[in-house]
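User: For this week's homework, look closely at the record that follows, marking any run of repeated tokens, and judge whether sequence predicts the tokens.
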Amino acid sequence: FLVLKSLTQGNFIPRLNKSSVKRALVAVPNFEEQKLIVAAHKKLENLSDAIDEFNKELALNPKNASLISERADSMLEEIGHLTDADKIMSLARQGESREIEFKESLSMDVATGTKEKYIEVAALKTIVAFLNTLGGYLLVGVDDSGGVKGVADEVKRCHKNNYDNFMLFLKNKIKQRIGEQYYPFIESKIVDVGGNKVLMVECQGSPSPCYLDEKDFYVRTNPATDKLEGPKLVEYVQNHFSL
């Protein structure tokens, strides 16, 4: 288009003549680039076909909406167009697994509204386990059934209704009980999901063993957190980490 536009003549009625077109220089990619262009075009066609199939399936079988939504979420995540809220909803629909864990709160007993150490420890154990395994997502403010409840009540009762205080509390607990050297493998953020604030903690697998309070070693199984000790701990560390 740009080449043809540059060849047009006339201010009021643009026109092209045959001789100008014959003299036009068109940049032609080399053969390898042409193959990449064709392959990319084919992939876009496949995506378009998949979307058409999703639309047909949704129209014919509305009961499959959850499955279709999960597949669409995977596609959107791959191309970087899945929002954090959509990501959380997708994880909540999948349910708890080796890579996904739900907690109703970070440190508050939801029945009494008071801070409890054992609840805090449960969340930190999960983070340690994800670091020692293959990574995963800890969603705080989501109940066991995948219902999004949010952390607003905990923030109000335990952190002076200040989300910055809430996030600083998490950061300090990670520093004190896990170790600040693991910060690069932990990303945490507050995400608004339909008006409910959810804490999403995304962990990558650590290249070195991670311990809670420098002594307790946890790994992630499906869908639980297990403590390893003795020979099992030694064997796991030797097999899983490149020390």
